[in-house]
């Protein structure tokens, strides 16, 4: 772990002001430490020398003032660090949410959702120890240590040299401990992510696990991972205890050496009592912040390990933002025919999609004209949803996508013309109405009612509550609410967005024949109003009512030049 990761300053702007304020507070604290040591040494040596109390009173008042000021700086430092830590964590969480948006649903779907929520939740919370305790001590060390060491050297060169020689031993020792801890800390963090994943699977899949009698196995797995987590945590703690002990021993020995030197010179009279006392009080203060850095290192390291992962995600999103055409190559193909450029609606020209090693689509050409319902059919796994994901900008794709003759950008933004209902309906906690008008700042109630009625959901009140994962409605209702959302968005397509495109991915997979007929009517109405309608389906009844059919064959069954067939 680097003492201070520069990426933290880059991604969490709030961190800069905390560091600035922390430096000012550290400077005041160092002045207080020096003042405190000076006045205590003076008061003791002058009392022993027999100075009258009245003459000592001004120094006493100053000492009391310094003590109060020092307490004030501790209070200020605590509140700055607590507020700063909260600001930084919320800035990093916002940046992370922005990164997820940039990287897109395709990226998120390839990651473990449990690991992502652990890093964004518990992981970033662990930064509290880093900001609340570790960083302030690091700043104090950088400011107080050289000043105090210099003052000791000026007052008593011999003690100064002892302090200057022994001080670097502590950071050297800490670096060695740091190397050893890094691996255990990462293992502890990975086990935690593993544990979260196990719990998520147990909770989300409880019904299935119980039905197949696998719940005990899952519980046993969690028990094993919990044990692994305990072992890893104990390893981290062992390092923490040993390093705390060693740091304490090192600094105590160094202070003892200084104290013995001062004592001997006080005895032989070569050092004044005031100076000796001053240096003796100051010496532990030179080691204290560095010792505290070491003591807080392990608590901070968990947050830093998590922050490391956050920074990797933020860097990835930054790279995508800076070169949007690098991973997503849609729009790179050389020439697109004139007819494609003149088509109102959507044209795919040589579209290719690949997931790591798995090539799903290659060189797919298709036209989805305005006013036409096109059914997209093909065997399971042929790549129909992958084509939809490419149109949505969710996956890396090659080739070109043209909307009204203009190239569609590779990232998901800038598709005001596109309305989509996914294969698996995603409902957000709220109400039926808020789900249909999702993303609309000024929802049109009449349109919401119209979209729901078109799908036979007029009996469902707009205010009907929906839970976090679509609880509160049936599977078929959830699917129709998701389609109603697409119909609502279609009706709200801005006039200057061009030909509206309605993309429905297996819209009737959870519906009965009557509801399916309503979906077909809604798709036909949309085409009549001028939209290009694409319906991915396995249902013969939808294919029958389509104006055109695009068949995507499994890659293994494709023949060169016969990748797809379009029936008009
Ligand atoms: N995010 C992904 N990462 C890796 N492979 C994927 C991903 N999404 C889909 N695939 C693979 O791509 C292939 C095509 O999947 P796709 O979902 O496009 O098929 P589909 O034609 O829509 O199938 P279905 O009719 O069953 O919905 C499948 O082999 C699938 O396993």
Automatic annotation (TrEMBL):
GO biological process: cysteine transport
Entries under PROSITE patterns matching the protein: ABC_TM1F, ABC_TRANSPORTER_1, ABC_TRANSPORTER_2
A GO CC term assigned to this protein in UniProt: plasma membrane
InterPro entries listed in its UniProt record: AAA+_ATPase (IPR003593), ABC1_TM_dom (IPR011527), ABC1_TM_sf (IPR036640), ABC_transporter-like_ATP-bd (IPR003439), ABC_transporter-like_CS (IPR017871), ABC_transptr_CydD (IPR014216), P-loop_NTPase (IPR027417), Type_1_exporter (IPR039421)
Predominant location category: membrane
Signal peptide: none
Domain ABC transmembrane type-1: 21-302
Transmembrane portions of the chain: 20-44, 56-76, 134-154, 161-180, 239-264, 270-288
Name this protein carries in UniProt: ATP-binding cassette subfamily C protein CydD
Domain of life: Bacteria
Organism: Plantibacter flavus
Domain called ABC transporter: residue spans: 346-568
Keywords: ATP-binding, Membrane, Nucleotide-binding, Transmembrane, Transmembrane helix
Topology of this chain in the membrane: Multi-pass membrane protein
Record-level Gene Ontology MF annotations: ABC-type transporter activity; ATP binding; ATP hydrolysis activity
Entry's localization field: Cell membrane
Lineage: Bacteria, Bacillati, Actinomycetota, Actinomycetes, Micrococcales
NCBIfam families: CydD
């Amino acid at each position: 772990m680097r003492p201070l990761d520069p990426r933290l300053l880059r991604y969490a702007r709030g961190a800069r002001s905390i560091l600035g304020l922390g430096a000012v507070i550290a400077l005041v604290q160092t002045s207080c430490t020096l003042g405190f040591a000076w006045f205590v040494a003076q008061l003791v040596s002058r009392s022993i020398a027999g100075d009258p109390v009245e003459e000592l009173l001004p120094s006493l008042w100053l000492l009391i003032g310094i003590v109060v000021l020092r307490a004030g700086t501790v209070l200020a430092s605590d509140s700055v660090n607590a507020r700063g830590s909260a600001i930084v964590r919320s800035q990093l969480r916002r940046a992370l949410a922005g990164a997820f948006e940039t990287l897109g649903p395709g990226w998120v779907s390839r990651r473990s959702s449990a690991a992502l929520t652990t890093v964004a939740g518990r992981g970033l919370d662990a930064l509290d120890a880093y900001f609340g305790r570790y960083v302030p001590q690091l700043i104090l060390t950088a400011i107080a240590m050289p000043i105090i060491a210099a003052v000791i050297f000026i007052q008593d060169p011999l003690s100064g040299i002892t302090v200057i020689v022994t001080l670097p031993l502590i950071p050297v020792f800490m670096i060695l401990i740091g190397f050893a801890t890094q691996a255990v800390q990462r293992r502890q963090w990975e086990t935690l992510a593993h544990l979260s994943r196990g719990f998520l699977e147990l909770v989300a899949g409880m019904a299935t696990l119980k039905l197949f009698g696998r719940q005990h196995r899952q519980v046993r797995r969690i028990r094993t991972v919990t044990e692994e987590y305990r072992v890893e945590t104990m390893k981290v703690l062992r390092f923490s205890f040993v390093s705390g002990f060693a740091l304490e021993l090192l600094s105590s020995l160094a202070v003892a050496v200084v104290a013995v030197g001062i004592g001997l010179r006080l005895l032989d009279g070569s050092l004044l009592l005031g100076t000796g006392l001053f240096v003796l009080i100051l010496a532990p203060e030179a080691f204290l912040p560095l010792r505290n850095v070491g003591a807080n290192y392990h608590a901070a390291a968990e947050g830093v390990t998590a922050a490391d992962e956050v920074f990797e995600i933020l860097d990835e999103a930054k790279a995508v933002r800076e070169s949007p055409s690098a991973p997503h190559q849609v729009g790179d193909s050389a020439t697109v025919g004139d007819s494609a450029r003149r088509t109102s609606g959507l044209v795919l020209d040589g579209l290719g999609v690949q997931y790591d090693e798995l090539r799903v689509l290659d060189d797919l050409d298709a036209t989805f004209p305005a006013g036409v319902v096109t059914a997209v059919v093909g065997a399971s796994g042929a790549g129909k949803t992958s084509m939809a994901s490419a149109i949505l900008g969710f996956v890396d794709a090659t080739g070109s996508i043209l909307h009204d003759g203009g190239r569609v950008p590779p990232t998901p933004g800038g598709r005001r013309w596109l309305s989509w209902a996914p294969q698996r309906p995603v409902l957000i906690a709220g109400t039926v109405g808020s789900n249909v008008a999702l993303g609309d700042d000024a929802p049109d109630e009449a349109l919401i009612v119209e979209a729901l009625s078109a799908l036979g959901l007029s009996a469902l009140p707009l205010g009907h509550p929906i839970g976090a994962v679509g609880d509160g409605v049936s599977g078929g209702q959830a699917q129709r609410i998701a389609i109603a959302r697409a119909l609502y968005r279609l009706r709200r397509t801005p006039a200057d967005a061009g030909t509206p495109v309605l993309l429905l991915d297996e819209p009737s997979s959870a519906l009965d024949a009557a509801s399916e007929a309503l979906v077909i009517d809604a798709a036909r109405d949309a085409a009549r109003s001028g939209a290009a309608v694409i319906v991915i389906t396995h249902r013969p009844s939808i294919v029958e009512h389509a104006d055109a059919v695009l068949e995507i064959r499994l890659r293994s069954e494709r023949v060169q030049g016969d990748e797809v067939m379009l029936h008009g």
